[in-house]
Amino acid sequence: MEQIDTLVATTRRVRAFEPLYRAGSPFKSLYAIRLGSFKTVVVSEEGREQVTGFQVPAELLGLDGVDNDTHTVTAVALEDSTVCVIPYARLEEVSIQVPALRRQIFRAMSREIVHDHDVMMMLGSMRAEQRVASFLLDLSRHHVARGYAASEFRLRMTREDIGSFLGMKLETVSRILSRFDEDELLTVQKRLIRILNIDGLNAVLSYH
Amino acid sequence: MEQIDTLVATTRRVRAFEPLYRAGSPFKSLYAIRLGSFKTVVVSEEGREQVTGFQVPAELLGLDGVDNDTHTVTAVALEDSTVCVIPYARLEEVSIQVPALRRQIFRAMSREIVHDHDVMMMLGSMRAEQRVASFLLDLSRHHVARGYAASEFRLRMTREDIGSFLGMKLETVSRILSRFDEDELLTVQKRLIRILNIDGLNAVLSYH
DNA sequence: CGCACGGTTGACCTGTATCAAGCCGGGTGG
DNA sequence: CCACCCGGCTTGATACAGGTCAACCGTGCG
């Protein structure tokens, strides 16, 4: 990230619910999130929509566009957000002279691939309850990594976004959160989550 | 791929059902498939297994290992296969002087990310029948791209592998193939698939 | 003020899992 | 060479997770 800072041409603000870029639009830059959060959404030919991920500060957006010089997902801000714009042409240029930078990009892409595999596993082989638990534990881990308390955080996205990401309906997300609350694994107050029993949540993952 | 040929240190043969590399083993090389086919499998801490993809000649294996110098998936040959071994250290070296090569690697990684997003959409928002149709149409497209007939091909993997990849049980895969057969969209004879009505299969994707 | 949107909860329905039996084809050992 | 076995596959009966439809609540915004 430090090296990337030297490449930053500009920063850009994106208002809540506005797209940073859209699927189908030409790819020119990567974006490093400074502040705020995003969701990425794919839309199929038949109009099917699916949230493929949520991104928070220090994460990189736009890698999907490298292949065809065209974005394949739409990135939408979940709240007022700020990103650093990294012109891709300049990045390629600079990466010639700076091996460490080149390696960082390779790694960032590989990391996204690995992460996507984890999501595929979640979608393909977990039950709804486990997917929600896994999602919350992931958020919690992210918060720790960013220096916040692991046990309390605000969801930035709607139940519908969560459902789309986890491959279930919003009603199911809601019911499962309520059940977790009832079982005293956590408390839910609209979007505020307080985890009471991390071990219990982890245990949900190993059901049958 | 032509440029990659100049990097190939050796080729390696892998017998059917043998791993090319395992999750957790040190990452040293990428592999370009010459002949045969593979499946990639992730295993979670709880022992959950999930097939994350199937690979055929001209595809690249091992990109998941770049991030941590450790493979995160296991690649298993579905039949006797041959791969070109591309030592990663050498690839990084050569990519300094050859911008076109560097770009190719970036693209290959981006392409995998885009592909993974498509799989996520399939898993997250399609019904079982649609996932199977989508899978078969994908295979058919691949066969066309490789110069074979679109309408007839042999599955290289078991029903269980397909089910794992598509997030359903092997019985469901079997039933759906039988139903497609009954509806005269295709014929199934064990692993030999003959597509009779591509438009019909495509139409399955747009149900409800 | 009231409307729209996000969320919760209930009743009911259905797609897919589960469990179980049986088939087929190929490889092995008697 | 045949009998057997085993793994991959199909098919049926039944169970249940999660989807669907609907009613209702709270709250923030025009």
Polypeptide structure, described:
Two copies of one chain form a homodimer. The first copy, chain A, is of the alpha+beta class and 208 residues long. The first copy, chain A, has seven helices and eleven strands. The first copy, chain A, has helices at residues 2-5, 88-97, 99-125, 128-145, 159-166, 170-182, 198-204, and strands at 10-14, 19-21, 29-35, 38-43, 49-55, 60-61, 74-77, 81-87, 152-154, 186-189, 192-195. In chain A, the strands form three sheets. A four-stranded antiparallel β-sheet of chain A has the order 1-8-3-6. In chain A, strands 2-7-4-5 form a four-stranded antiparallel β-sheet. Chain A has a three-stranded antiparallel β-sheet with strand order 9-11-10. In chain A, β10 and β11 (192-195) form a beta hairpin. In chain A, α2 (88-97) crosses α3 (99-125), α4 (128-145) crosses α7 and α5 packs across α6 (170-182). The first copy, chain A, is globular, with a radius of gyration of 18 Å. At the A-B interface, β5, α2, α3 and α5 of A face β5, α2, α3 and α5 of B. The structure holds a DNA duplex (30 and 30 nucleotides).
The count of strands of chain A amounts to: 11
Largest interface: A-B, 45 and 45 residues
| Estimated helix fraction of chain A | 40-55%
Strand-pairing-aware structural class of chain A: alpha+beta
The fraction of residues assigned to DSSP E strands of chain A is: 25-35%
Low-confidence stretches of chain A: none
The order of strands across the largest sheet of chain A is: 1-8-3-6
**Oligomeric category:** homodimer
**Backbone shape of chain A:** globular
Order of helices and strands of chain A: HEEEEEEEEHHHEHHEEH
Report how far the terminal alpha carbons of chain A are from each other.
41 Å
Please, what is the average pLDDT of chain A?
93
- Please tally the helical runs of chain A, counting DSSP H or I stretches of 4 or more residues: 7
Give the radius of gyration of chain A: 18 Å
The profile of the biggest β sheet of chain A is:
4 strands, antiparallel
